[in-house]
Design goal:
This protein has 137 residues and is an all-alpha fold. The chain is built from four helices and no strands.
């Protein structure tokens, strides 16, 4: 009788352990699911903050290169970020990329695209010269 009682108690303990393990697993799975849901919500919110992307056209390509050049020159700043020395080498690289684009597309651009590229390239070159002159002072 005593053996049977001990056997029953041992079985009850095994069952209790299974239930505890099973409950822990459920809690962990719920936590992971909640974390993933929070990450997805944050990513979705981040995408909405950005707004729609512009059309992928020639003007957008020029804009990307000009923006990089102006950022390298220190003429475009990120809010809350410390001022940095202009990176003339990086600015020159982006200007060179625009010049390459001008050379390689010669004769293949419509009049509006040609004017935008010429005007923008002239403006960014002038900005580069001004920053170099200020740096000399």
């Amino acid at each position: 009788m005593k053996r049977q009682k001990e056997k029953d108690m041992a079985e009850e303990k095994k069952e209790e352990k299974k239930i505890i393990i099973d409950e822990d697993w459920k809690k962990e799975a719920k936590k992971e699911k909640d974390v993933l849901a929070a990450q997805e919500a944050a990513e979705k919110e981040e995408k909405q903050e950005r707004g729609p992307l512009p059309a992928g056209d020639f003007a957008a390509l020029i804009s990307i290169l000009v923006t990089q050049a102006l950022f390298a020159l220190g003429l475009i700043k990120i809010e809350g970020q410390k001022d940095k020395e202009p990176d003339l080498e990086l600015a020159r690289y982006n200007i060179d990329m625009l010049e390459t684009l001008e050379e390689k597309t010669k004769g293949n651009l419509n009049e509006a695209e040609k004017r935008v590229l010429e005007h923008t390239l002239g403006e960014v070159r002038m900005a580069y010269v001004k920053v170099v002159e200020q740096k000399k002072k």
